[in-house]
Amino acid sequence: MSDTDDAEYAFDTLAVRAGQVRTGEQEQSEPIFLSSSFTFSSAAQAAARFAGDEPGNIYSRFSNPTVRTFQDRLAVMEGGECCVATASGMSAILATCMGLLNAGDHIVSSNGVFGTTVNLFSKILSRFGLETSFVPLTDYAAWEQAIRPETRMLYLETPSNPLTEVADMERMAALARAHDCLLVVDNCFCTPALQKPLEQGADIVIHSATKYLDGQGRCIGGAVVGDHQRVGEEVFAFLRTAGPTMSAFNAWVFLKGLETLTLRMRAHSENAMALADWLQHQPSVRQVNYPGLQSHPQHALASRQQTAYGGIISFEVDGGRAEAWRLIDAVRLISITANLGDLKTTITHPASTTHGRLSEQERRDYGIGENLIRLSVGIEDVADLQADLGPALARL
User: Fold this and answer.
1) Mean pLDDT in each 10-residue stretch from start to end of the chain (396 residues)?
2) What is the pLDDT of residue 360?
3) What is the CATH number of the domain that holds 88?
4) Residues 100/152, Cβ–Cβ less than 8 Å
5) What is the reported pLDDT for 362?
6) Is residue 97 within 8 Å of residue 107, measured between CB atoms?
7) Three-state secondary structure call for residue 361
8) Could you list the residue range(s) of the whole structural domain that residue 229 is in?
9) Residue 327 sits in a domain of what CATH number?
């Protein structure tokens, strides 16, 4: 499919076919180009490619046909002009900051982001003159108060990890425009199958392709989606030089994941909704966080800007760390792992894993208690998931 064809097709068709350019072999499935470099017909062509005067492949650190197919497909699915694929979700965030910001610039980030993202902003980028202020995701007055003359980026995840708070992206986009800032949204939990931040006014979308874009826990990768100037030139320039590159094999795996994205996200959402409703009726469960529940503080907002509510649930049990660990250790079907977005349901204790490197005070400020458990709900039969969790909850 060419770029001119894309507007003619629906989302699910694009997820299967966008970006594919068949070779002379007329393959049905996209090929994997496992080549570190590419040849030129002449010295003049090599010079033209290196100078950027002629399009074409040079070196797989920054130009590989399989990676390009993944980039083109995800860009179309997100409604962006351009995508840069990276080696991991964290390298996507790093490439965005290093490509678009300068020493002395300031970031305002929601505090409800992945723990490693907090560490990247506060402990690594700070060493290079980039300062970050953290504010509650849904406290819009706090966002405005934190913005300074040198603020260049507003960064958030929606829904958040692990409390599933939901940000009003249109409101955040208006705030960013009023202060000449970029709005960067991590769309890992929903994917473009459930929400499109660029349509809500975001400038940049970040993905950990490791999660739902793959969907089966096979490969590590990330992506940055946006316009030709910021992403296609500035973020790409960092990737070309610094090399946090997605491998061709991983790109091929992610392409296969994109083909079933809508089907999987619908199944994840249906199972999570059923499990969240069941959890809130269990006597040893104190609180359930899931945007699909009427009790969720941003349920109406999530219903407006998402087409479904995703596969992530967090919940608090009576007690503290000992009780949370006891429940986790009692499950037999559900996998104990900190990864998410898998077809298999996973369970983790955020305070000691994904957010374990934060200080106790930071976790307290972010609402991540010792009794909090996160579920990434897979596509197993939900009755089996309930049967696995039920006896574990009863032991509390």
Assistant:
1) 66 93 90 95 96 94 97 97 98 98 98 91 96 97 98 98 97 98 98 98 98 97 98 98 97 98 98 98 96 98 98 96 96 95 96 87 88 97 97 90
2) 86
3) 3.40.640.10
4) yes
5) 85
6) yes
7) helix
8) 3-259
9) 3.90.1150.10
Claim to verify: residue 177 and residue 281 sit in the same structural domain = no
**Which tokens sit at 7?**
């507007």
Q: Look at residue 81 in the predicted model and tell me its pLDDT.
A: 97
DSSP state of 38: -
Residue 387, CA distances (Å) to 109, 182, 330 in order: 39, 46, 12
Residues 308, 370 contacting (CB under 8 angstroms): no
Give the model's pLDDT for residue 3: 45
Maximum distance among all alpha carbons in the chain? 74
Burial class (CB in 10 A: 0-12, 13-18, 19+), 337: middle
Burial (CB count <10 Å: 0-12, 13-18, 19+), residue 383: exposed
293 and 162 in a common domain: no
For residue 179, how many other CB atoms are within 10 A of its CB? Answer: 16
160-170 as b/e: b if 16+ CB within 10 A: bbbbbbbbbbe
Instruction: Give the CA angle between residues 8, 9, 13 to the nearest 5°.
Output: 160
249 and 344, same domain (yes or no): no
Residue whose pair of structure tokens reads 């296969």 in the numeric block: 256
Q: Are residues 22 and 118 in the same domain?
A: yes
Q: What is the pLDDT of residue 115?
A: 85
**Cβ(334)–Cβ(345) under 8 Å?**
yes
pLDDT value for 41:
96
Number of domains in the chain: 2
- What per-residue confidence (pLDDT) applies to 5? 62
Name 317's bridge partners. 285
Q: How is residue 274 annotated by DSSP?
A: H
